[in-house]
Design brief:
Helices cover 73% and strands 0% of the residues. By secondary structure, it is mostly helical.
Length: 135
């Protein structure tokens, strides 16, 4: 084999490497563009072209997509639970307000005299008279 053959073979190999590298870069750019638009479902269309360190990069992008999908799912689930809780709270508040309008609670319904000593009886009677004057 002559040196010209060796050089031409090296040129062919270098062109093939450059072509593969350009293909991998285009694939990565496509997947990154999807992620930039909140689409974490993109997978490589050419996984066989990712060789050496590029295979690790392909795996890392795949893991990042899966993690982001899981995180987004958890955020959606939490938001749904918060929304349901606030809806329930608002509904309970409406029922409470409606119940208060339908049957107002009077102070005298809450009056339950406690057994008290003879010494505290006069204070108890004053408080009782004061409350009854407002009813």
């Amino acid at each position: 084999m002559t040196s010209e053959d060796e050089i031409s073979e090296m040129v062919v190999v270098a062109r093939e490497m450059a072509k593969n590298l350009a293909t991998v870069i285009q694939d990565v750019n496509h997947r990154m563009d999807l992620m930039a638009h909140n689409d974490y479902t993109g997978v490589s269309k050419i996984p066989e072209k990712y060789m050496g360190e590029f295979a690790a990069m392909n795996d890392a992008i795949h893991v990042m997509n899966m993690d982001m999908n899981e995180t987004m799912h958890q955020i959606e689930e939490a938001a749904s639970q918060v929304s349901a809780g606030s809806t329930n709270l608002a509904e309970d508040h409406r029922h409470w307000q409606r119940d208060l309008r339908i049957r107002p609670v009077q102070w005298k319904n809450f009056w339950h005299p406690l057994p008290i000593s003879q010494k505290g009886l006069s204070t108890h009677m004053r408080v009782h008279r004061l409350l009854m004057s407002y009813l």
